[in-house]
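pasting for ref
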Amino acid sequence: MSIKGKAYFAGIYEHPARKITDKSIAQVHAEVAKGALEDAGLTIRDVDGYYCSADAPGTGGLSMIDYMGLTVKHADSTNTGGSSYLYLVAHAAEAIAAGKCNVALITCAGFGRPGTAPRDMGGGVPESAFESPFGPVTVNMYAMAAMRHMYQFGTTSEQLAWVKVAASHHAQHNPNAFLKKVLTVEDVVNSPMIADPLHRMDCCVVTDSGGAVIVVSPEIAKSLKRPLVKLLGTGESPKDQMGGNVDLTYSGAVRTGAIAYAEAGVKPSDIKYASIYDSFTITVVMTLEDLGFCKKGEGGKFVMDGNLISGVGKLPFNTDGGGMCNNHPGNRGGITKIIEAVRQLRGEAHPKVQVKNCDIALAHGTGGSLGTRHGSATLIMERE
């Protein structure tokens, strides 16, 4: 079923806090729900579909439906890590197109430790019994992909550093950003090495925060006094370890981008703004290649010299500062990618980073690890 033009973004809200010590996860979910509903001009009584991921407490969607007093006809609690909320927007749009609901509330809340310390990969995957004794953590898995990219394509640490530099140029204009200092390439490559070749500044921040999105039917969208932003295409697909025959040089975006472009009827050159999941600098470089913004192996060259900086470069990205500098709630940072893309299409981004004539935007999420298995999801949206 195609969702093109059958679902609209009516409300968005990003929690302003980056460290939360006086609220529970459930309370943050409820706060961002309230913010998004107010942005849309709707009430909790209008909601008939609810979507959240594993960051919700207890039994996930069931717990939060009860906590917020919702009465819904459709619900989903898909968990694919950082890409979860892009999957959930796609699933909400499919439900709306199928007539299962009309107003879908999608909420995210995450508690993490501010800083760049690597997070435990945890157990529960088939290879845990064999790999856990060696202590793999998230940053190790991404470092493997970065090292392979450098070996195969000649990518350099200085090129990767431009991802962080671009994000910092945007974050300086975001009053809620966790890191607001404008950085240089030298700042990044001279920061402490965490897992060769990734430095501390190659890593995202880890924050407490959250966000919410309201997706509605076309009829409801057109009855609200909000800019019309519609979903054009979606793509979702995991990349697994293929029985050990792992190619570290590409991500699941190879598939999800192609699926989303085909449904939307657009091509990479039509995209005016891109929200790219930025857990590490290598994540951005590989994703840009796999989404077709440059050839495979040329991502390092593409991001050099500020090509991701709004008003300067070829493809403005993560104009809120992204996970690199602004906000990465737990391991569910994909929600912020959707929120900033909608802001850009509405013309509501900070004036210093607002992309001129922004009519088509892309958001992409990666959940899991580039070095092992991960979920990948792409959304393409348009200002009507």
